[in-house]
Specification:
Distance between the termini of chain A: 28 Å
Largest interface: A-B, 20 and 21 residues
Shape of chain A: elongated
Strand content of chain B: under 5%
Strand order of the largest sheet of chain A: 1-4-5-6-7-8-9-10
Largest sheet of chain B: 2 strands, antiparallel
Number of helices of chain A: 4
Number of helices of chain B: 4
Shape of chain B: elongated
Oligomer: heterodimer
Number of strands of chain A: 10
Largest sheet of chain A: 8 strands, antiparallel, barrel
Structural class of chain A: alpha+beta
Chain lengths: 209, 183
């Protein structure tokens, strides 16, 4: 039992009915065993129908921005994301708050420093089921600083036009100063709040295998 | 000094409105001037946030001041003025009140058009007056500057006129707006 995760995943793949049946049939156990983790279903992002937004406090007033360019991969070992793997890569340089001047300031060295750190990254290798849905327990890297971060989310499967899709939604609070997003004057939080609420509503499509 | 106005002088409340607004306008010009010279960044953001909060304060005070003026008698223009001088004085006072409302209102609207909601000292977020629009923002920025400079020119004229009344005509026009004086 050197790979308990693998065995669990295999067992889940063999035992689980429903959503992942088609994938199990397509991928014989031998092939699954050769993969680093037994993946019953791999979902990738439908960018046109997904959003990744953030709400922040500027000068005492609430405002919203978005990251229009990002990639998501969700691997389901069984019928749902529990025990799976979630990876998100965000092109921070594409940040869009609806104001060119503000976006330029956000990209500058004292904030996101996109010249040096063009991407943010989240990798969760532990996804657990919770009362409200799921929780992805992983490592979030922004501006080169990595911190353990738990992201709660809900996941709903559907079949649309014969295509298997998953809707992944949720939100979490990120403290920008934990990641050094705010050097010099920007370390102050009275005009630019430390807490940023990141919310996501993603439409994922199950990759053909 | 009585709180209410009399036909001879302005009461304590009207004087307080007048001089507090004068002080806040000095603060506004200072904040705007300091922010203008700065590159986009935290300091500019901070100065402009205060500028907006003080501007909203002035707007509120001017509305209260007009209400107070409405429910109160007030000293008449001096009798030694010629008819056209009286007309000019009335016009410039109306213009001062209009601009005291229009300048903060144009600033608030301009902020809304920019997509930067206005907060009053971080305690209260004000509603956006117009939807976000870059061309509208640019037009309102010009409007806000023009109105502000017009207000400053009119305030200068107003102050020079008050001093002229005091030192040239030697009447009560300035003294009746000053605390600790007799008329």
């Amino acid at each position: 039992m050197r790979h308990p995760m693998l065995w669990q995943a295999l067992a889940a793949t063999l035992l689980a009915g429903g959503a992942c049946d088609a994938v199990r049939a397509a991928a014989p156990p031998a092939a699954a065993a050769a993969a680093p983790a037994a993946v019953a279903a791999r979902y990738t992002l439908d960018p046109a129908k997904s959003s990744l937004e953030f709400t922040f406090l500027q000068a005492g007033a609430k405002d919203t921005g978005r990251f229009p360019r990002f990639a998501v991969t969700l691997d389901c070992p069984g019928a749902d994301p529990a025990g799976g793997r979630l990876e998100v890569t965000v092109e921070v340089a594409a940040v869009d708050t609806g104001d060119q001047d503000r976006d330029d300031v956000l990209r500058s060295d004292d904030l996101f420093a996109v010249a040096k750190f063009p991407r943010a990254h989240f990798l969760a290798t532990r996804i657990v089921k919770t009362a409200a849905g799921y929780e992805a327990d992983g490592a979030l890297t922004i501006r080169g600083v990595t911190r353990d971060t738990k992201v709660p989310f809900t996941f709903r499967e559907a079949t649309e036009g014969g295509v298997a899709v998953g809707y992944l939604t949720g939100k979490t609070v990120v403290r920008r100063l934990d990641f050094g997003v705010g050097q010099g004057d920007w370390k102050a939080t009275d005009q630019a709040g430390n807490e940023v609420t990141v919310s996501f509503a993603l439409r994922l499509t199950r990759a053909a295998r | 000094m009585p709180l209410r106005n009399t036909t001879r002088r302005w009461g304590a409340i009207a004087q307080a409105f007048h001089w507090v607004i004068v002080a806040l306008i000095v603060v506004q010009v200072t904040l705007a001037g300091m922010a203008d010279d700065l590159p986009n960044g935290m300091r500019k953001l901070t100065l402009l946030a205060r500028h907006k909060s003080v501007g909203i304060t002035i707007l509120g005070l001017v509305i209260l001041r007009l209400a107070w003026r409405w429910v109160n008698e007030h000293p008449p223009l001096p009798e030694n003025l010629k008819r056209y001088e009286q007309a000019l004085a009335r016009f410039s006072h109306v213009a001062l009140y209009v601009l005291l409302v229009a300048v903060p209102l144009s600033g608030w609207t301009m902020s809304s058009a920019r997509g930067f909601p206005v907060s009053w000292f971080g305690f209260l977020q004000l509603p956006d007056l117009v939807p976000k629009s870059r061309p509208l923002y640019e037009a309102l920025l010009t409007t806000h500057h023009t109105l502000a400079w017009t207000l400053l020119a009119l305030i200068t004229l107003h102050a020079v006129a008050a001093l002229k009344h005091h030192f040239w005509h030697k009447d009560d026009v300035l003294k009746r707006m000053l605390p600790f004086t007799r008329t």
